[in-house]
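Example complex used in Figure S2.
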Amino acid sequence: MTLFTLIPGLKGYEHVAAAGLAASLLLYGAYAAREGLRAQTSPLPDGRGSVLNLFGLVIEWVRSMAHDIIGHDADRYVPFLCALFFYILTCNLMGFIPGVAPPTSNITTNWACAITVFVMYNYWGFRAHGVGYLKHFAGPVLWLAWLMVPIELVSHLVRPLTLSVRLYGNMMGDHTALDSFLEIAPAALPMLIMTLGLLVALIQALIFMILSAIYIALAVAEGH
Amino acid sequence: MDNRTGRFTRILWVLFAMVAAGAASAWAQEAPGAPAAAAAAGVGSVKVALALAAGFGIAIAVFGGALSQGRVVTAAMEGIARNPGSSGQMLIPMIIGLALIESLVIYALIISLSLSGKIG
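Predicted assembly (344 residues):
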């Protein structure tokens, strides 16, 4: 059903191929941006519509968002958040090529991103606080720890699950609706659902990135 | 350039590379995404119950979700009406709130889809 099945041997793994295509597109874009950066003479951006300026625009916006959420030393987490945002946005937008299913409409791609976020924010929490990071699970007061630790553990363990299922449900629902509307009215009706789908793709990539920034901020926060 | 990664970080990177190299073999076990349709629901009344649950579940979830999203947009509209200049500040938190409420509806959609998948 999808275009990737035209390549022999890829049956059943189209989403892996599509995810690989998205990743290689981003790597090429990063290479082009770096070449543009090397050729640039002044530190100010010129007004052209180049790949470098597109990346710069988005990265500046992600950086301001990370500074709002995480605080003063957000710069070390910005590359991770930008990579997450670009990758998920590219994977979502690939669903609008006719014949390609978005890789994020398969739960395994989302699960990979969500597990990465989970591992990374716990790693940064341990690096910022040492073993004292585990005191975050005990809640505000020590004698409530017997109640708070199970609640906090469950809410922490359910975070990668909710991150991945949210993205999966949005993308799979959009793509299923697009497929059904294509059967009903081939030209007019899919345009409406594609417009909504563009918005949803952008918003869901944004939500994933913002929630990851919030989890990092909660793990790294030293405001006691 | 100076070498800023500490020893602990470098050990972590080596471990991560080993795990990643081992995890590449996990792709071989990936089943092409068809849900394992356990067609044990052969009795008619079980199918009726599944169909009713799938239909009503998503309907109730969407009802609650639409109601609360309406409240979010109402609050945003009132805020813009009071102070039209700050509408840019209100857009992003409103979108975040809408998406988080919608994600609850989508959890119900997933359950409803898996229930209706068990019917056929």
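Helices of chain B lie at 7-23, 44-82, 87-117. The first helix of chain B runs from residue 7 to 23.
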